[in-house]
Amino acid sequence: MNAGHNLGPVDQIPFGEGRAFGVAGEQVAVFRLRDGSLRALSAVCPHKGGPIADGTIDQELVLCPLHQHAFRLDTGCSTTGAEPLGSYDVQMDNHQNIILRIAAR
Amino acid sequence: MTTVADENKRKTQPKTQAITRPKTQPRHQARQAKPAARRRLVVIGNGMAGARAVEEILARGGAEQFSITMFGDEPYGNYNRIMLSHVLSGEESDADIFLNSLHWYQDNNITLHAGVRVERIDRFTKYVFANNGHVVPYDVLIIATGSQSFIPPMDGLYTPSGSIKPGVFTFRTIDDTRNMVQHAQQDRPPEGERSAVVIGGGLLGLEAARGLQSHGIDVDVVHSGGHLMNAQMGPDGGAILRRSVEALGIRVHTGSRTTAVLGADKVTGVRLRDRPDIDCDMVVVAAGIRPNVDVAVLSGLHVERAIVVDDQLRVVDEDDIYAVGECVQHRGEVYGLVAPLWEQAVVLANHVTGADSTSAYLGSRIATKLKVAGVEVASMGLQGPERETDEHILFSEPSRGVFKSIVIRDNKMVGATLLGDSRKVAYLTQAFDKGLPLPEERISLMFDLGGPAEEQGVAELDDDAQVCNCNGVSKKSLVDVVKGGCNTVAGAMDATRAGKGCGSCKLLVKQVVEWAADGAVEEDPAASYYVPGIPLDKPSLMAAIRKQGLRSVSSVFAALAPGSAEDAKSKMGLASLMKMMLADQYIDERDARFINDRVHANIQRDGTFSVVPQMKGGVTSVQQLRRIADVAEKHNIPLIKLTGGQRIDLLGVPKEDLPQVWADLDMPSGYAYGKSFRTVKTCVGKDFCRYGTGDSTKLGIEIESRFQGIEAPAKLKLAVSGCPRNCAESLVKDVGVVAVEGGRWELYVGGAAGAHIRKGDLLATVDDPEEVKVLTGRFMQYYRENANWLERTYAFVPRVGIDRIRAVVVDDTEGIAADLDAAMQASVDSYVDPWTERDGPLTPGQFRTSLPLTALPQVPVR
C-alpha cells in the first residue's frame, strides 16, 4: 500500500458536504459525513458529467445535483441504475489531514 | 389419510369426466391436513363466479377446512368469459383465456366434475344429484350457476326435429364461440358475401357484430330497444354510438323485433316486425342473459328474478347454502357484470371460512369501461337526471363520435356516460365510487383544462410511450420493474427515476404502476410522508417538531427518523419546512441544503451557475442595465438571457466567480434557483398603458419587496396585470392579480402555464391594493403550512378546494387568519439577502469549484 496523498486539513470540508480535489490527474470528491468519517468517490457523474462533490449526502448515499442519480458512498455503486463511480480509500491521519490512496480498491 | 372423497366410491357410472385428485398428496399438504375436521364443500358452477369463490376460500385457508368438489356444466376448466369476443374476432386464441387450467384443480386437491350438471339439491339430507348419476353429500354448498343466453320468442328457430336451426348461434360459452368461428371460416358459400344478423344491440351484440366483421362477414344488428346499449346509456349517447358503429360498416336497425328466422333446413334470413326481411346465412342471438335458477327452483330455494341471498351471500332461509354471481338476486339487484362478482366472492369466502364473520356485501356500484366494437364506452350509475334538482352536464360531438354525460346530485356524481373519449374515466370512476367532492367548474369533469390530473388510458399507452419526459422513462421500463417484483409506486419511481424530474408526471407514473401491478400494488405508506425519510405526514411532522422543540434538520433525523438515520432525499424538504416554521429560530445547517441554496444560484448542466439579480416587477433602470452589462463583459458571461419572469439571467458563471459577480452587480438575489417566492411579473400599468385601470407595476413591486425569497414547498411565481387584457398572464400564476374597472382587484390562485396548464381560481375581488397584499401573504402562508413537499399551487388548490381556501383565507372561518399573517410576517422579517454572503463564505470552500477538469458538455455560446 502506498503512503497516499495528503490533501490537507479535514476542516476544509464542512460536515455533511463534499469538496472536489485533483489528485494525480484524477478528479476526486471527498465527503465528510456528519459522524466525522470520510468517503471518496470519483468526482464526475457517469450519467451526464454532474459535479458529485456538490451532491447532497447522508450516511449511505450521495445524490448527484443534476439529475438526482444516487450512489453509495462506500462502493460508488448506483442505486438508481447509473454506471458506478470509482471509489477510493480515504483516511484521516494524526494531524487531521486527509490521506487519499489512489490505487483502486 | 383419506384422500379420495366419498363420492368416488358411490359413483355408479363407469364413464365419468370427473378429475380426481392424485392419490399421493404433496408432502406439505399431508403434514397440515386434518382429515377428521374437514367438512365437505360442494360448488355448483365452475364459471368465473364459482372458481373465484373457491380461490378466495383457498386464500383464507379453506384447503385445511374443506374437501372441495366442483361441478361445471362445461367440460373445461374455468375461463374468462369476458374475453370471448376477442376469441371471436381472432385477437386471442381460445387457449389464452383460461383462468384455471385442469392442473389448478389437481394442485389444490379439488375434485372437478367437468361437463356434469347438477339437477337437484336435497337441502334436508344435504346431497346434490348430478345428471350423470353422481350423488354427493355436502356440509356447505355454493351455487354459482351463472346465466344463459336469453332467446326471445320467434318463429323458425328450430328444425322440425326440434334441434336449433343450423346457422343460429347464441354467444355465451367457449363452445358457442368456437362454433361461430368454425361456421364463419369453413362453411363459406361459394357465391357472394357471407352475411349475419345479430339480434341484440347491447354490449354483447355489438361485440359479436364486430367479431363477425373481422371474419369478413357483412353484419346487420337488429335491436328491439330504441337505441343501442340502452342498459348503459340514454338515447343521446345511443345515437352517437350508432353513428360510430355504422361508420364501421355495421348496419343498425333499432326499435325493431325479429319475428322469424327464415329458411327450411338452414338459415336464409330473418323477418322483422315492421321492416323488409334481411337475407343472411347466420343468426347470432345476443338479446341478453337470464340467470340459471332451475336447480334452485327445483330444490325449493327462494327464487324471485334470481336466487335471493342476504348480505352474507347466504340463500334466504338456508344455513349452509350460499350463492354467488349472476344467478344471485341481492337487495333486488341482479348483476350481469364481473365486478360485483369479485366483491361477492370475497364476502362469501369470509363467511364460509369464518375468516371474517362481520363481512357484508351491500351491493355494487356498477361502473363499466369497455371497448365495444372498437368504440370506447364507459358508463356508471344513472343514465340521465331523475329529479328536478339533478344537474346534467352534457357534451356531444357526433362527428368525432364523442359523447359525455354526467349527472350530479347534491354535489356528488351519481351517473356518467362517456363515449369515444375515455380519458377522464379513471377520475370519474373514483369520484363516483367514493363520492368525492366535485370541482366547481363542472366542465373540468369532462376535459382536462390543465392541472396535474392528466388522465390517460394507461392500458392504451404504447409500451415505448414516454411516461416521464424528464428522465426518459417509458411505460415498458416501469412495467418491467413492477413485473420484477417492485410493486410500490415509490419503489418503481426510485428504480427508474420516473417522476423525479419536474414531477409533473407523477400521477401518470402512479397509474402505470397500478395498472402494471393489476390491482396488487402495495399500499405505499410513504406516499403520505412529507419527506421520504421521516414516516410522518406534514401535520404530524410539524406537530412533532414543535412538541420536541427541534430546530435543525439533523435534530429532526435524530429524533424522528427510523434508526435516527439521515436521508439525503429528505434534507432539502426538511430545511425548507423548518425555515418556514421557525424563521430566525431555525438552525441552518448548510449540508441540508441543495447545492442551489448553498451557493444561491441555479446549477446548470455543465456545473456552472446562473445568476439572476432581483428586478422587482420586471422594472429596471439605466444604472442597473449598465451595471449588468459591465458585469457580463468583465466576467465573459457566455449567455445573457431574458427570463419568463421579466429578469435578466447571466448564465455560465463558475461557482468560484459567484461572490465577485454579486459584488460587481451589487444587486439583491432574484431567487431564480429556490423552492421559494420567485418573482412578480407585471404589465405596464396605468401610467403608460392607455387601457390600464390599476397601477400594476407599483403593486407588483410592493408584493415582491414584501415576500422576496420566502421559502415554500415549491416555487411561487406571481403576476399583477393592470386590466383584464392580462398582459402579465395573471390567470396562470400561483398568485395572480388583475385590476378591473372601478378600482377593484381580482386575486387568482393555483394557476400554471408550465409543465401543466391551469387557469387559477378566483379567490377574492377586493377594493384595496393593501388588501391584495394581505390576502396574497395569507394564501401563501396557508399553502406553505399545508402543501406537500414540491406540490405546486396548481395541485394544492384543487386538492384542498378553492371554497375551503377562500373560507380560511378570506372569510377566516377557522379563525387562523391572524396566525397566518403573523407567521408570514415573521418570515418577512427574517429575510436576509443571501448574496451578502459574498463578503465572507459561510462554510469552508463554499464557492470552491466542484467542476471536473475533464471536458464536459458545454452550454453553447450564442
Describe the structure.
With 105 residues, chain A is an all-beta fold. Chain A has a single domain, classed as Rieske Iron-sulfur Protein (3-layer Sandwich). In chain A, the strands form two sheets. Chain A has a six-stranded antiparallel sheet with strand order 1-9-8-4-3-2, with no helix packed on it. In chain A, strands 5-6-7 form a three-stranded antiparallel sheet, with no helix packed on it. In chain A, strand 5 and strand 6 form a beta hairpin. Chain A is globular, with a radius of gyration of 13 Å. Chain A starts with a strand and ends with a strand. Chain B has 862 residues and is of the alpha/beta class. Chain B has six domains: 205 residues, FAD/NAD(P)-binding domain (3-Layer(bba) Sandwich); 120 residues, FAD/NAD(P)-binding domain (3-Layer(bba) Sandwich); 80 residues, Enolase-like, domain 1; 71 residues, Arc Repressor Mutant, subunit A, CATH 1.10.10.1100; 56 residues, no CATH class; 158 residues, Sulfite Reductase Hemoprotein, domain 1 (2-Layer Sandwich), CATH 3.30.413.10. The longest helix of chain B has 18 residues. The N terminus and C terminus of chain B are likely disordered. Chains A and B meet through strand 2, strand 5 and strand 6 of A and helix 15, helix 19 and helix 20 of B.
What is the name of the CATH topology of chain A?
A: Rieske Iron-sulfur Protein
* Count of individual helical segments of chain A: 0
CATH architecture of chain A: 3-layer Sandwich
**What profile does the largest beta sheet of chain B have?**
6 strands, mixed
CATH class of the largest domain in chain B: Alpha Beta
Q: Mean pLDDT of chain A, rounded to whole units?
A: 90
Domain module tally of chain B: 6
Q: What name does CATH use for the topology of the largest domain in chain B?
A: FAD/NAD(P)-binding domain
Run of helices and strands of chain A: EEEEEEEEE
Strand content of chain B: 15-25%
Separation of the first and last Cα atoms of chain A: 11 Å
Got a strand count of chain B? 41
* Beta-strand content estimate of chain A: 35-45%
Radius of gyration of chain B: 35 Å
Radius of gyration of chain A: 13 Å
Mean pLDDT over the full residue set of chain B: 87
